[in-house]
Structure formats: structure tokens, C-alpha cells
Design a protein that fits this description.
The chain is of the alpha+beta class. It contains seven helices and 22 strands. Helix 2 packs parallel to helix 4. Bound molecules: fe (iii) ion (FE) and calcium ion.
Length: 495
């Protein structure tokens, strides 16, 4: 069981109650195949700036065909942005060409919009209209923001469950969704709930990655979550290959072959998400800063492309190994030094805080920051000098709340900030409140305030004075219709 929240050093978690109640949200979407037509994969928006967003769709009348059922030529796609959902007041419009070399995806960077305003958007080809999406621009750079609501999510292995969590998420009132990695999984697993992977093999080619993305987008609750809010998305490992590290494949591919696979994976990732930057072959500068007035800065990190290869336990504290790479680290530290926001967030993939294994229960994870301990501590020490740092994390397929300690081996040391680790949307299946070793795990990690092993997401409400994180969990994902439960609520007071 999680320990009672203890009191206070500098800035500490208040609260942490279990099972606050079950929301009466039901009736989540039911079909599991995409609807017919050109816009079968839905619409999306992302990377909101004060003056605009990226709008996305992909034409794919046959989403599981290698060419999506589209001809090998460019197709003009009309787009509209309106102030109202009936499109009475269209404020921006244009035509983008969906190219066959880009899987007939379109990425429209709309500008000239008002800050922190809601807009509706849609696409049209001939007589066919897409679904209507809703989006929201960011506040102006110096705007005083009194409230910002966002959810973060990660890890949606299709074969492990239905995306019911997104059906619930789509009904919240959010400014943003942040997705922290494992949007697809690259394996050929078939699972046990009738949602076997397409194609039924590991994916390597661009054609196969495209089919895999199309399959994930075939879940209507995922499409609903994209249509409801702008997203900020970044990949982790499974969008390419399990546990990849820089040019090092974990499955033994030689670096040139692995880079070719990564180029295919990156291309397909870009084709299916609303992003402002795109890959150049196997390279992609995807790390970026997103700012929301004077309230929050998000530093979105890439902890895959520039990292040193994983090493055995005995070498995990070696200096000189990197998770971020020199250039990204310099960029991050520059941003942190210059930042003026009330809350400073690292939006990143893998477990940041120390996570000691219980005695006799193996080693530290070789894929998380513990395997890059020297650089983790360097980043941690930088966070100690910024205002109200918060780290949000995916990958773990479990929920955790951690005090980031000035010295993780010294429980009495200062609490520098807070790490919120979100569970998976589906990966690892239904789950439960606790795993057998959790009590021992908490015993050797006194800085960890909370652990839970159900599926779901984290919904955060941020004000100048406080950050409230609600861990919203599902009873099950192996079939449709789970209610959502406010499993735990944590509040951080700002300083
Ligand atoms: Fe995952
Ligand atoms: Ca992962």
C-alpha cells in the first residue's frame, strides 16, 4: 500500500487519497473498424501556439491496404477553420495537397488565429466532408493564465485492450493532451481479445508501419480524443523498436539496417500525427518547447535518438553516458535558465527518479534514467534551480508519484520537484491496484508516494497556486465499457 503522504520540505504533495469515486461516464463508442470513406482515420490538431495549430488528416478509404486505397497522385484537400462548430464564421481556409509519398496525409500549419481561443476545423475532398475537430490555441506569451487543464497518456498496445480511457478523456474539458510515447507497438502479437496486430508480423517497411498506424487509428475512442483537443506527441521506443538507443538496435540489427528501419518508422509516425517538424531520413529534431502564457512551459524531450546504449548494472553510474545528447542537453539547460513560467515541466518518456529494486528482485531498469544516473542527477540538479519543476513520464505501464530528491539515497534531503508517471492506456492489459512486490518496492524507495497498476491516464489542473493531478483508472480494458475511477489525487502547492 502507498504510504501516507508525509509533510513538507520545500514543496510537497498534499493529499493522495485512494478511490475518490467512480464517474458516471459510460456509453463509450463501440465500433472497432474505421468508418467508411476518405476520412476513415479521423482528424487531429497539435502543437498549439498562440497564433495557430497544426491540423492533420490522412485520406485512406482502405486503411489496411498498403496505399490506403488511394491513387498514386496528389489529391487537393480543402480545409476550414471556424469560430463555431456549424462553420457559420469561417476564419481561415485553404487547400493542401495530400501526396502519395506522404501516405496522403496533410499537415496544415494554420496561423493568424487568436490566442487561447477555441476553433473548429474540418476537411473536404469533392463532396466528402471529414468529421469536425475542435482545437484551442495557446495563450499569448505573457498572458496571465489562471487555469490550464491537460491530460497525459502513453503506451497503447492495440492487442492488449480497447481505448476506453480515451472515450472518457474526450469528455473532459482540456486545453491539451500530451502523449509520451508508445503510440504503436512494432511487434506482430495477436493478443487474446480479437485485436490482433496488422500485419501479423514485426513491422520494418514503411508500408507495414503505415498499416500499423492505420490499425491503431481504427479505434474510435482514439479518434475522438484527437478530435476533441490539440495534442503534443513524442515517440518512445515502440514506435520504432523495443528499447532502441541511438543507432543501437536492441534486436541485433546492424546500425545501417536499423537506421533504415528508423527512417521508415519516423516517416510513418509523422504521417499520422499533427506535428510541426518532420523527419529527415533517420534523423528528427522532435524535441521542442511549448509555452502556455506565464503559467507553464513544457520541454518535450527525446530520450531515444541521442542516448548512449544501455549498459549492465555495474556500469550504470559511469559518467559520460548520456540520455539527451550534448546538443539537446544544452538546449534544455538554456531553456530552463531562461524560463520565466510558474511551472516548468519536462515531458519525457522513461522513469526519471531513482527506482531501486527490492532486495533479491533484480537490478535497476537498464532502459530508464537509472541506467544514466550521472546525467539524471545533473538534470535533477538543474531542476533544483528552476521554479516549480514537474516531470511527466510514460513507459512504465504503471502509475507512480515520486518526490525528486536532491539526493535519492538520502530521504531527508530536499525535495526538488515532483515526477508524475502515468500508466498505460492499454499496454499489459487489465492490471490491478497492486503487484505482489509493490510493498517491498515502496520500502526501498521512500521517495515514491504512490503506485498503482491499473490502466488509464492522468488529468492535471494547473493554476498559479497549485497543480492537481488526478490518476484516472479503468476497471478493465479487455472489453468495452469500463467506467473510469478517480483512483488518486495529488496536489502540489506552488512556490
Ligand atoms: Fe509501452
Ligand atoms: Ca516504452
Amino acid at each position: 500500500m502507498p504510504p501516507e503522504p508525509s509533510s513538507t520540505r520545500r514543496r510537497v504533495l498534499i493529499g493522495g487519497t485512494a478511490a475518490l469515486g467512480v464517474a458516471a461516464l459510460t456509453g463509450v463508442a463501440t465500433p472497432t473498424e474505421p468508418r467508411d470513406g476518405l476520412f476513415s482515420l479521423g482528424v487531429a490538431s497539435g502543437d498549439p501556439w498562440p497564433d495557430g495549430v497544426v491540423l492533420w488528416t490522412r485520406l485512406a478509404p482502405e486503411p489496411f491496404a498498403p496505399d490506403g486505397g488511394m491513387p498514386d497522385r496528389g489529391v487537393p484537400v480543402e480545409w476550414q477553420v471556424a469560430a463555431d462548430d456549424r462553420f457559420a464564421t469561417v476564419v481561415r481556409s485553404g487547400v493542401a495537397v495530400a501526396q502519395s509519398s506522404e501516405a496522403h496525409s496533410v499537415h496544415v500549419e494554420v496561423s493568424g488565429l487568436r490566442p487561447r481561443a477555441d476553433y473548429f476545423y474540418r476537411f473536404r475532398v469533392g463532396g466528402e466532408l471529414s468529421a469536425v475537430g475542435r482545437t484551442r490555441t495557446a495563450p499569448a506569451p505573457d498572458a496571465r493564465v489562471e487555469r490550464f487543464a491537460f491530460a497525459f497518456a502513453s503506451c497503447q498496445r492495440y492487442t492488449d485492450g480497447f481505448y476506453t480511457a480515451y472515450g472518457h478523456l474526450a469528455r473532459e474539458d482540456l486545453d491539451l493532451v500530451v502523449f509520451l510515447g508508445d503510440y504503436i507497438y512494432e511487434g506482430g502479437s495477436q493478443g487474446r481479445i480479437g485485436r490482433g496486430h496488422r500485419p501479423a508480423r514485426d513491422v520494418f517497411s514503411l508500408a507495414d508501419y503505415r498499416i500499423r498506424f492505420a490499425q491503431y487509428k481504427s479505434d474510435p475512442d482514439l479518434r475522438a480524443a484527437h478530435a476533441a483537443f490539440p495534442w503534443v506527441a513524442v515517440y518512445d521506443d515502440h514506435e520504432v523498436e523495443n528499447n532502441w538507443a541511438g543507432d543501437n538496435s536492441d534486436s541485433g540489427m546492424p546500425p545501417p539496417a536499423f537506421r533504415s528501419r528508423r527512417a521508415n518508422a519516423f516517416q510513418a509516425y509523422w504521417e499520422h500525427l499533427p506535428l510541426r517538424t518532420r523527419p529527415s531520413g533517420s534523423a528528427w529534431r522532435i524535441h521542442r518547447r511549448l509555452a502556455f502564457g506565464d503559467l507553464i512551459d513544457f520541454q518535450v524531450l527525446d530520450t531515444r535518438q541521442y542516448r548512449s546504449d544501455q549498459v549492465p548494472e555495474a556500469q550504470r553510474e559511469n559518467p559520460g553516458r548520456t540520455m539527451l545528447g550534448a546538443e539537446q542537453k544544452a538546449w534544455l539547460f538554456g531553456n530552463l535558465a531562461a524560463g520565466r513560467a510558474r511551472w516548468n515541466v519536462l515531458a519525457q518518456q522513461v522513469f526519471f527518479s531513482q527506482l531501486n529494486p527490492p532486495p533479491g528482485a533484480g537490478t535497476h531498469s537498464d532502459d530508464a534514467w537509472d541506467n544514466y544516473a550521472a546525467e539524471r542527477n545533473e538534470v535533477r540538479d538543474r531542476l533544483a534551480s528552476v521554479r516549480n519543476p514537474v516531470v511527466i513520464t510514460g513507459d512504465a505501464h504503471s502509475s507512480f508519484v515520486c518526490d525528486i530528491k536532491a539526493d535519492f539515497d538520502e530521504p531527508q534531503s530536499r525535495t526538488v520537484g515532483t515526477e508524475f508517471v502515468g500508466t498505460s492506456i492499454t499496454s499489459d492489459g487489465d492490471g490491478g491496484d497492486h503487484a505482489p512486490g509493490d510493498e517491498a518496492l515502496l520500502g526501498v524507495n521512500p521517495h515514491i508516494r504512490f503506485v498503482n497498476r491499473k490502466r488509464g491516464y492522468v488529468s492535471c489542473t494547473v493554476t498559479p497556486d497549485s497543480w492537481v493531478a488526478v490518476y484516472r483508472t479503468l476497471d478493465f480494458v479487455s472489453r468495452l465499457g469500463s467506467p473510469v475511477c478517480d483512483q488518486a489525487r495529488f496536489e502540489i502547492g506552488a512556490v
